[in-house]
Design brief:
Length: about 325
């Protein structure tokens, strides 16, 4: 794939400290998947890589997938498909979507065909009858689920750990935000070390994420005893959603701007920013142990900040 020449892989790991010294007794590291590519950053490349190779192996020239108005996944898919000669179609949640917002404008410039549908219809995105209707409208295509949440996406996310395993060898705890739970499932499936994992929910009522992890792992590996062992190594952090998915508060924006100004590292407001805020607050509450080695997974997605005002991009 020509695109490989543009990718920074393995993604770097760097030491991280909060600017005001909070958590100074803890050894924080960040896996900078946000630096993989300017537009296909973070877990988006991980989840797309094998899906696009599979589409090409099947000799399919069109990829169809799903996302919202400021979807990082749609942006990454549009950019990744274009240099491979693949046509891309984005089924977008909400008929009212502004096709001239920064994300929608960008994906169309990359050649993606946009197909807005109602929020009710969008809920049918995994329904066989609905998918068949899309085939009748657009012809034959390779389907990538929303967020790349399938076995190929999960397998690609294993490379977060396996591409440079020495980075994780002495890690006690891995911190990862979860949307579809594909990324964290891939990290668990890598199965190289016995670190514990904190799963940070951007959703109000995010307890379902553990069931999503179980579903992904069982679908891929069919080993209930092993999956149960992996689930026991995961702790959900549910209290830092800021009102629910897609919702933010001034204190979160202020925190993300502060981190960017002091460290030069950009974080998105939907996933990683909420996770980092949670880690900062948990440090102040004495949640972590002194001397622990903690890896923070930065899954990218900063372009999604275009959906909000008053935040540095």
């Amino acid at each position: 794939m020509n695109l490989l020449n543009q990718l920074q892989l393995p993604s770097p790991v760097q030491k991280f400290e909060f600017p005001d010294g909070v958590g100074a007794e803890i050894n924080f590291f960040i896996k900078r998947d946000d630096l993989i590519h300017p537009h296909i950053s973070g877990n988006k490349w991980r989840k797309l890589k094998l899906n696009l190779l599979n589409a090409q192996a099947k000799k399919l020239d069109t990829v169809l997938t799903f996302g919202g108005a400021f979807s990082n996944h749609l942006a990454a898919t549009a950019v990744a498909c274009h240099p491979q000669g693949l046509k891309s179609i984005g089924v977008v949640r909400g008929e009212e979507v502004d096709l001239n917002n920064p994300t929608m404008k960008f994906v169309q410039e990359c050649g993606m065909e946009i197909f807005p549908i109602s929020r009710e219809d969008y809920k049918l995105k995994t329904d066989e009858g609905f998918i068949q209707g899309l085939h009748e409208q657009f012809g034959i295509f390779y389907l990538v689920p929303e967020g790349g949440a399938n076995f190929y996406g999960l397998t690609g996310c294993q490379e977060i750990v396996t591409e440079n395993p020495e980075d994780f060898e002495k890690i006690d705890l891995v911190c990862c935000s979860a949307g579809t739970a594909t990324t964290i499932s891939g990290i668990l499936a890598a199965d190289l070390f016995n670190f514990k994992t904190l799963c940070f929910s951007p959703f109000k009522g995010g307890a379902f994420l553990k069931q999503e992890i179980e579903k992904h792992l069982l679908f891929g590996y069919w080993d209930k005893e092993w999956v149960e062992e992996k689930l026991n190594s995961v702790e959900l952090i549910l209290d830092y959603h800021f009102g629910g998915f897609g919702k933010i508060k001034p204190e979160l924006i202020k925190f993300i701007d502060w981190i960017y100004t002091e460290t030069g590292i950009r974080f998105d407001l939907l996933y990683n920013g909420k996770m980092l805020f949670a880690i900062y607050d948990l440090c102040k509450r004495g949640f972590f142990k002194s001397g622990q080695n903690i890896m923070i997974i930065h899954t990218g997605g900063v372009q999604g900040n275009a959906g909000f005002s008053n935040v540095k991009l």
